[in-house]
Structures are given as structure tokens and as C-alpha cells.
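Why do we care about 3D structure at all? Because function follows from shape, and shape follows, mostly, from sequence. That is the central idea of this module. The next example makes it concrete: a single protein chain, its amino acid sequence, and then its structure expressed as C-alpha cells.
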Amino acid sequence: MMRAFLSLIRRDTKLAIRIGGGGGMAVFFFLVVISIVPLGVGPNLKLLGQIAPGMLWVALLLSALLTLDRLFQADFEDGSLDVMMAGALPLEFVAAAKAVSHWLTTGMPLVIAAPLLGLLLNLDVAAFWPLILAMLVGTPALSFLGTVGAALTVSVRRGGLLASLLVIPFYIPVLIFGVGAAGGASAVEGAGRQSLLLLAAVALVSLVLGPVASAAALRANLR
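And the structure:
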């Protein structure tokens, strides 16, 4: 079972890299959003530095939403999803593998790009590591929660927008605690540590409930 799980992750990761448009499109959108923030806020570098963690998290969240429709849609259209449902690997593990692949091809590039783009917002260099740590903890929750929305809309033609609307309310705790963990002076002390622990708790719950809810949604849609 574990071999099949890892094989599915490798398959989806290779397909995402070969086809393109997933992580690359998300990073490009991330860059565009961050680039226009200084135009709207103005040349106040102090203000930009203060809002940088929040803006980076909001832009990352919106960028991750762009690729949700790629989680199951292609496999649904070519019939691969039906084969997976009839296979020996439980559907919950299939959903988990999809989420892991999504994080590797979309979440990880966004985390790597975040501190670099933070320079455009005058992000303090001392805040780089708290930001990276918070995003490494929180971005898997975006992928695992995103599978639920993608599974609910898998049979809807061009259901990416609907999937985004469905999962945004569940992304709010990740956004709140992520900004709190990245915006503190340190992610290992005081309020920053509390936010990081709460963010980790949300991520762990998402890792458990996300695949279960996604599998149930797939069974309901493809019955």
C-alpha cells in the first residue's frame, strides 16, 4: 500500500512538472500580487514592512487557490480517477497523495519565493525564518483542505472558482495563525510561538480530515 501511495505521488508530481502551469502559474501570480501592493500603499517603507507578512500570506493563499482544479479534474476527464477508485489503494490515500503532490509542486515553490518577494515589501531580514517556518507548517493545510473543494466540484465543468469559494472559509484559520506566527518578532517565543502551535494543530487536523472528506465527496460525485 505504501509503495502504491508513493508511486501515485511521483506520478502526479512528474505530470505537474511536465505539463507545467501549476506551480509556475501560482508563483507568477504571487509575484504579480506582491508587485502591485507597493503601488497601492505608496512609498512608505515602514508601512510596507509592517503589512508584509499579512500580504505575503494573502497572496500565497490566493495563488494556491489557482491550482485546485488540477487536483482531480484531469484524472476525472481521462478516466484515471475511476481506475483509482477501483484499485487496491483506499480512496483516502489517493486523496492524500494528491494533496502531497499539490504541496510539492505548488506549496513548496510558493514558500521558497515568499521571502524573496518579501524584499519588495521591505520585509525585515530577521522575519525571514519565522515567515518560512510558518509557511512550511501552514501550506500543507492549504493543500489538504483544497482537496475537499476539488473533490466536491470534480464533476462540475470548470469548477475551479466554485472550489475556491468552498474552501476559502476553511483557509481563514490558516491565514490568521500564519500571519500571527510570521508577524511576531520570533516564531519560537511569545505570541509568535502560540500562533505557530495553533497553526500546526490546524495543519494536523487538515492532514487527518482532509483525505477522509475528499474521499467521501468523490464517492458521492462519482457514484
